[in-house]
């Protein structure tokens, strides 16, 4: 089942001679259970693509659907509702609210969506358990390590069974072991049915994806994967 | 050198047969570098000659597989000094990709950005395969995980090098020879240089 569908999506900033083509006629489908990584140099359009996919920005031309809902024609209120209910974000700098505890951060999108406090608390605790930080539920972000904060951010991104998970350099602020743990969690969430899009400049982390799309100057120039396990190495697992 | 030192290291645990050394070497290194039994016995014979190991056999001139090898004091010192010293990278290994890149840059009509991108996709595919293997490693298979990590970091380094080459070529384009070397024919499908 296709969760995210971009068809011929372009994004132009400015007009005339000053126009900057951030994205040029990019098409991309991401299915439930699939993790897709986007790689490319600075200015290649990676973040623009992610913002468009999550309804944080609107394309100049083209169509974007999430779970079959066309985002480009939605009004601001409906678009905000789609973002809350269907899309989860993970950012490089975690973006947790410092005055709220871990569990309150995770409850927030549910409460904004009208869920009662008790139900929101139960769902948030479950999301924190999935990423192995339920014991930190009552801590404030400042009292947690970077890796722990990113786990809370992932819990917030997946709480309420959102179908699309968007991650913008989620390992950028973490050491290599914590970064790998975050990638394992994102992979797990996709293996349990979410569709994921990951923007990263680290090949080692992009390699956790089923497919890696290479962007250059706003255009998707190549794709790597999906791959199997090379026969020569497969025997090692036996 | 690595086989010689590995055999000495394994013998610090106590006397072992040649076949036993081979099995233990392969198991402890994640079965990534298969060892020929002939190579094990040749190495042991050399270590015996140099006074680092002694071979005990119940009958004189016994088959190598019947010999029980143990370390001499000199062998023990040699094994310990291997762990205490860093591995030397004395010369740059011959690398087909580096050679190919250098030649591509010096010959006319080669699509260098195309070469870089094709290699990047291939290296990423390799990295994805290693990562898939890593995701499946059991908690007890530390040797295999560490070996996979080395392969992963090496492949990542190659991709970073390709990114670096690409960026540096954009800023400072290569001066490819304008004259066509004798007998060289530019590929007809090559895209024009950026």
Beta-strand residue percentage of chain A? 25-35%
Q: At the fourth CATH level, what is the homologous superfamily of the largest domain in chain B?
A: Winged helix-like DNA-binding domain superfamily/Winged helix DNA-binding domain
**Topology, number of strands of chain A:** 10
CATH superfamily of chain A: P-loop containing nucleotide triphosphate hydrolases
Strand content of chain B: 5-15%
Explain what this protein looks like in three dimensions.
The complex is a heterodimer of chains A (238) and B (194). Chain A is an alpha/beta fold. Chain A has a single domain, classed as 3-Layer(aba) Sandwich (Rossmann fold). Chain A contains eight helices and ten strands. In chain A, the strands form two sheets. Chain A has a six-stranded mixed β-sheet with strand order 6-7-8-3-9-10. The two termini of chain A are 32 Å apart. The relative contact order of chain A is 0.19. Chain B folds into two domains: 2-84, Arc Repressor Mutant, subunit A, CATH 1.10.10.10; 96-171. In chain B, 57% of the residues lie in helices and 5% in strands. The longest helix of chain B is centred in the last third of the chain and has 30 residues, at 142-171. Chain B is elongated and about 70 Å long. The model of chain B is unreliable at 180-184 and 186-194 (pLDDT under 50). Chain A binds chain B through residues 39, 41, 184, 187, 202-204, 206-209, 212, 214, 221-230, 233, 236-237, and chain B through 30-32, 117, 120-125, 127-133, 135-136, 144, 152-153, 155-156, 159-160, 163, 166-167.
């Amino acid at each position: 089942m296709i969760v995210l569908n971009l068809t011929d999506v372009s994004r132009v900033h400015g007009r005339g001679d000053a126009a900057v083509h951030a994205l040029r006629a990019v098409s991309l489908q991401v299915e439930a259970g699939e993790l897709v990584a986007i790689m490319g140099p600075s200015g290649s359009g990676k973040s623009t693509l992610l913002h468009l996919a999550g309804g944080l920005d609107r394309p100049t031309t083209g169509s974007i659907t999430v779970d079959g809902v066309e985002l480009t024609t939605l009004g601001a209120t409906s678009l905000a509702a789609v973002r809350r209910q269907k899309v989860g974000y993970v950012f490089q700098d975690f973006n947790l609210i410092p005055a709220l505890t871990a569990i309150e951060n995770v409850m927030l999108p549910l409460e904004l969506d009208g869920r009662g406090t008790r139900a929101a608390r139960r769902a948030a605790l479950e999301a924190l358990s999935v990423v192995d930080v339920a014991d930190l539920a009552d801590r404030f972000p400042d009292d947690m390590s970077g890796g722990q904060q990113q786990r809370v951010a992932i819990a917030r991104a997946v709480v309420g069974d959102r179908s699309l998970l968007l991650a913008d350099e989620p390992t950028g602020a973490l050491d290599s072991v914590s970064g790998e743990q975050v990638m394992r969690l994102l992979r797990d969430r996709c293996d349990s049915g979410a569709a994921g899009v990951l923007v990263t400049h680290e090949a080692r982390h992009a390699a956790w994806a089923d497919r890696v799309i290479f962007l250059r100057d706003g255009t998707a120039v190549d794709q790597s994967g999906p791959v199997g396990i090379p026969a020569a190495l497969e025997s090692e697992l036996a | 050198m690595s086989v010689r030192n590995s055999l000495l290291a394994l013998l610090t645990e106590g006397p072992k047969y040649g076949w036993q050394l081979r099995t233990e070497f392969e198991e402890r290194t994640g079965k990534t570098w298969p060892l020929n039994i002939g190579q094990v016995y040749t190495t042991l014979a050399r270590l015996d000659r140099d006074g680092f190991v002694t071979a005990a056999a119940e009958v004189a001139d016994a088959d190598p597989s019947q010999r029980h090898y143990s370390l001499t004091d000199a062998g023990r010192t040699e094994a310990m000094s291997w762990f205490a010293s860093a591995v030397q990278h004395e010369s740059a290994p011959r690398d087909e990709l580096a050679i190919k890149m250098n030649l591509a840059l010096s010959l006319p009509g080669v699509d260098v950005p195309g070469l870089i991108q094709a290699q990047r996709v291939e290296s990423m595919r390799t990295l994805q395969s290693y990562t898939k293997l890593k995701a499946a490693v059991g908690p007890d298979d530390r040797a295999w995980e560490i070996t996979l990590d080395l392969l992963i970091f090496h492949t990542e380094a190659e991709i970073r090098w390709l990114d670096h080459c690409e960026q540096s070529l954009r800023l400072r384009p290569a001066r490819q020879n304008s004259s066509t070397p004798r007998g060289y024919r530019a590929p007809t499908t090559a895209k024009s240089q950026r």
